[in-house]
Amino acid sequence: MNTPYVHGYRPRESERLQDQAGTLSDLLRADTAYDDGSRVLEAGCGVGAQTVTLARRSPGAHFTSIDVSAASIAVAQDRLAREGLRNVECLRADLFALPFAAASFDHVFVCFVLEHLRDPVGALSALARALRPGGTLTAIEGDHGSVMFHPDSPGAREAIACQVRLQQAAGGNALIGRQLYPLMARAGFEALRVSPRMVVADASRPAWVDGFTRRTFIAMIEGLRDAALAGGLLDAERFDAGIRDLHRTTQADGVFCYTFFKGVGRKPASARASA
Ligand SMILES: C[S@@+](CC[C@H](N)C(=O)[O-])C[C@H]1O[C@@H](n2cnc3c(N)ncnc32)[C@H](O)[C@@H]1O
């Protein structure tokens, strides 16, 4: 892994990823399905939060889900076994050094991984080598610059900015969603389409308020409290006030908006299989 994973691998982080995947399932993946018999590589599967939905939606496809963390792979394997999903093989592997021959897969799926990497174009190029010519890559990323909320609060924005700065210090990019098109283009993908997937969490969508605003987004910012204080980014009082204002957006008259970006591109049919 070429960048330390800023959110870490604690059990609470595993729950947060499950909450995120469950709540946003339709918004992010309703239009992702793979043909029977196709070979799909899921890169950076983590604890399998996306894997379960992918494998259920495409029961005739065969998934190979990899992650650099052996502990996460073990959790993913357990979860898939409990769900009775047999069309997934999980492996510990680094996406920059994939243990597969070139052109081994028809499709690649990568979600919330590029934002943690120092070299996202290198990652996309490594994944492209694993794809057959004409195969597709689907990438999903968030962008913390897309956050809007009511009531607005400079303090809440400061707390979110801590996450952006810490991720940047770790070599990642919490504002990567807006760059998906140019990054995928630089890695050589064609027929590219990037679409925004906007979460508007208000009282009419209590599942999004709880599952996304509270348990995914605010939980992520809260999880960085110690690092933000240790790094001198904010003092405890201001950080905690920012978190309180973020929670304020989950009340009946509050609104929290966030945009994810989903890119789909094709490896040129004319590419050499090993390129
Ligand atoms: C935010 S988690 C996302 C997990 C999953 N895709 C999801 O959406 O729930 C990022 C994952 O990328 C993995 N990762 C980071 N760098 C990697 C690398 N070089 N090769 C494989 N996995 C990597 C991390 O271990 C972590 O599990």
Largest sheet: 8 strands, mixed
Strand content: 15-25%
Query: Taking Cα atoms only, what radius of gyration do you get, to the nearest Å?
Result: 19 Å
Principal-axis shape equals globular
- What fraction, in percent, of the residue positions are helical? 40-55%
The overall pLDDT, averaged over residues, is 94
Number of helices: 10
For the record, give the distance between the C-alpha atoms at the N and C termini, rounded to a whole number: 22 Å
Low-confidence stretches: none
How many extended strands?
A: 8
Structural class based on helices, strands and sheet pairing: alpha/beta
H and E string: HHEHEHEEHEEHHEHHHE
- Ligands (ions, cofactors included): S-adenosylmethionine
Task: Summarize the entry for a quick read.
40% of the residues lie in helices and 23% in strands.
List the helices and strands and how they pair.
Elements: H1 11-23, H2 25-29, E1 39-43, H3 49-57, E2 62-67, H4 70-82, E3 88-92, E4 105-111, H5 120-130, E5 131-142, E6 148-150, H6 154-169, H7 180-186, E7 190-201, H8 206-222, H9 225-230, H10 236-248, E8 255-266
Parallel strand pairs: 1-2, 1-4, 2-3, 4-5
Antiparallel strand pairs: 5-8, 6-8, 7-8
Helix pairs in contact: 1-8, 6-10
This protein binds S-adenosylmethionine.
